[in-house]
Amino acid sequence: MTVGTDSPAEARSTTPRAPEPADAATTTGPAAGAAPDGAGGFAGIHPDDLPDGLVVADEQGRIICFNAAATRITAVPGDRALGLPLDQALPLEDLKGRRWWTLTDPYGGLAIRRGQPERNLLLPGGREVLVSARYVRERPTGPVRRVVVSLRGTEARRRTERSHAELIATVAHELRSPLTSVKGFTATLLTKWERFNDEQKRLMLETVDADAGRIKRLIAELLDISRIDSGRLEVRRQPVDIAAAVGRHVQVHTTAGQSPDRFFVRIRPGLPALWADPDKIDQILGNLLENAVRHGDGTVTIEVAPARTGDDGEEGTEVTVSDEGPGIPEESMSRVFTRFWRGSKRGGTGLGLYIVKGVVEAHGGTITVGRGPRGGAEFRFILPVGTPAHLI
What we know:
The chain is α+β, with helices and mostly antiparallel strands. It has helices spanning 29-33, 68-74, 78-81, 86-89, 100-104, 155-192, 198-230, 242-255, 278-295, 352-362; strands at 2-5, 53-57, 63-66, 115-122, 128-137, 144-152, 238-240, 263-267, 274-276, 300-309, 314-322, 366-371, 377-384.
């Protein structure tokens, strides 16, 4: 290793409400969908400005508002929908083929009902749409004056479901190999213990231990992903000597067989005191150095320097890890920190950099990727000092 140094709830409601029209069937969408003036500050919003589909029916069940998003989702022109009965403009069915408006009966059902929660329904032709409804009454048990329907496409939900399915498939694939090894070696030892000498037994147990460690790391990655996605990733801040942490990780690689000359560490003077989670700092450094060693070539350079973070110029620490390999193609730069991205076919789950980004951001820091000075990949993350409030 080479080391270098240098010097009121109602008043604020955003639900669009239509004015009482003289002729409900001829009321235009914009008039019906205009939001009320008041403290909420949403006056003048046009229904077509809303990202979700908005359909409003009057007390007779006829459409008085059908915005552009509703037209896009249902493929029903808004001018044709205005004035139609709600069940004709939106002939929705549940997944069992039953007519939804007949089942829910918004105008003739229980007077205490306030609406319908979001659910997956079908339009003619089998197109799926997410639908929720609100029943507007002048008094709690009075007649329904408006039915406000929200429509959303299912594309975002399907993308999430596909992402979850990919995660399950990846995990199943990654778990299968080490579990097969663990099961095979333990079964062999249990049934044929006396046939092996001590050296053979030791070799098999070392393999089992290594595969068990691999399974443990994968489970830890899954837990981290769950916490990152739900915003529950906890950071337990302590004083961290990041220069010493870099040295430990380099030593791990040299002990594992890498040449010490492959690593060049430069520690700039004037590093501020860093308060961070030591385990998560190790996780960041471990992933970045593993990527540089596995996917890069030549010398791996790790530089630690003082930095300024945020708009207020808060003190922080900047760590840069670069190599001399082929680097990351320009068109892939935007996908490096997404799930399942792999820079090469040299193994890995494709989850490491996604977790690294989540951990850095949980510390209030930032991470970027680019091309290093010698052509390889360069990862740079900056962490604020993070001093606990009671010590300031």
